[in-house]
Amino acid sequence: MQVEEINPYHKDGAKHAQVREMFDNIAPAYDVMNRMMTLGIDRSWRRKAVRTVAGTQPVAILDIATGTGDLAILLANSIPGATVTGVDLSDGMLEVGRRKVAEAGLADRISFRTGDALALPFDDNTFDAITVAYGVRNFEHLRDGYAEMLRVLRPGGMLCVLELSTPANPLVKPFYAAYTRGVIPLVGRIVSRDSSAYSYLPKSIRAVPVRDEMTLIIAEAGFAGAEYRSLTLGVCTMYTATKP
Prior knowledge:
This protein has helices spanning 15-26, 30-38, 42-54, 70-78, 91-104, 142-152, 173-191, 195-207, 212-220, and strands spanning 60-64, 83-88, 110-114, 127-133, 153-164, 224-231, 236-242. By secondary structure, the chain is of the alpha/beta class. Strands 3-2-1-4-5-7-6 form a 7-stranded mixed β-sheet, sandwiched between helices. The longest helix is centred in the last third of the chain and has 19 residues, at 173-191. The radius of gyration is 17 Å and the shape is globular.
């Protein structure tokens, strides 16, 4: 089954509406669950992405599926002078993000708006860099999402995607499967009180295109130099590309 066909709650119905509902439901527990699920390693993945993006010296950055703003805040703190626009389907997640941005004193450099990655509310060639952390597997149409990113990115601009992935190592794979299929749904049910959300997570990870397959999709959308880097035994993958 393709990742676009996997929904959080119901087999039928628009995926983007169910994804919005899911993240609205789990927004209060989202940050705690992230730390618990990844044992805090998600912070190091974001730092690697930020270092990669910072090397291109972007001024205007778009963070798609920005959620509660962790990556947007790290980008703003790490790249002096850059402004970050965060877009997400979920108002509940953005509400948490706005509080965090205000507490960090970054409201003048980070702005959030509700929006769909498949129909971005921006003009062509607007941003120097685009980031997406753990969001592309939630797109209703993955290829359309990459096409929209290409449209709003300026020529020469960088795309950097972090996404969870199934390890290729046969020694690691069974332990990872047991953890994602057993531990994560159990903890998610206890902490977030939304068992469907954290049952959806391992299913979507298993179905999302990874490594060479994902870089091919990115290239087919029109990006140049698409490549990937496996992180932490392959449980996360970073994809980069540029707009010709």
